[in-house]
Amino acid sequence: QKEVEQNSGPLSVPEGAIASLNCTYSDRVSQSFFWYRQYSGKSPELIMSIYSNGDKEDGRFTAQLNKASQYVSLLIRDSQPSDSATYLCAVPPNTGNQFYFGTGTSLTVIP
Amino acid sequence: KAGVTQTPRYLIKTRGQQVTLSCSPISGHRSVSWYQQTPGQGLQFLFEYFSETQRNKGNFPGRFSGRQFSNSRSEMNVSTLELGDSALYLCASSFDPSGTTKQYFGPGTRLTVT
């Protein structure tokens, strides 16, 4: 079983809509969760981190964590064409920085 | 504060050669991790260094090695290059190796093996 799984997409949403990206993980003791955005040809950029159950909002981005279901999601409100990228979910083990990355979800925001 | 820097940005090598990639972490960050990214496998963890010690190693052959210097700069080396080693090699730095601190990626080194 893969450590982190994401729907690879591609996911297409119209401009202004809400994009919903999902991630499940297998390590029950994981304590922190990260979302990265990667534009084509560029390196991953950290956009959100979440450590506790519930929601965490940062501008147009909301991360949601449910540890019981081993599920973390990223919502992008008022999606913009500039949000078009691949979004990677990352889950480190209980100790150490050996991050496990999902394969990423490709998002396209259609103007 | 300057970000993570990696050199060189692009590299073309032939099979059988070896290559050394360099990474300078964000000032104050002492943990450096290396990842390989390919279209088929995604981001795969190579190894992590903290205080000049390798703390974790991913599932890669011994041809892949690394080290960290006292100023936290890190290098990774790949010997006897194979075509399958063509990838984007990413370095990420974080303040400590706790797994809860954020990792920040450098721009990567694009390695092409012919």
Quaternary assembly: heterodimer
Weakly predicted, low-confidence segments of chain B: none
Quickly give the structural class of chain B: mainly beta
Radius of gyration of chain B, whole Å: 13 Å
The largest β sheet of chain A comes out as: 6 strands, mixed
Number of strands of chain B: 11
Task: Give the H and E element order of chain A.
Answer: EEEEEEEEEEE
**Unreliable parts of chain A:** none
Overall description:
The complex is a heterodimer of chains A (111) and B (114). Chain A is mostly beta strands and 111 residues long. Chain A contains no helices and eleven strands. Chain B is mainly β and 114 residues long. In chain B, a hairpin with a 3-residue loop joins strand 4 and strand 5. In chain B, strands 2, 4, 5, 6, 9, 10 and 11 form a seven-stranded mixed β-sheet that branches. In chain B, strands 1-3-8-7 form a four-stranded antiparallel β-sheet, with no helix packed on it. The model of chain B has no long low-confidence stretch (mean pLDDT 94). The interface between A and B is medium-sized, with 26 and 26 residues.
What would you say about this model in short?
The complex is a heterodimer of chains A (111) and B (114). Chain A is mainly beta and 111 residues long.
Name its key features.
heterodimer, A: 111 residues, mainly beta, six-stranded mixed β-sheet, five-stranded antiparallel β-sheet, 11 strands, globular, B: 114 residues, 53% strand
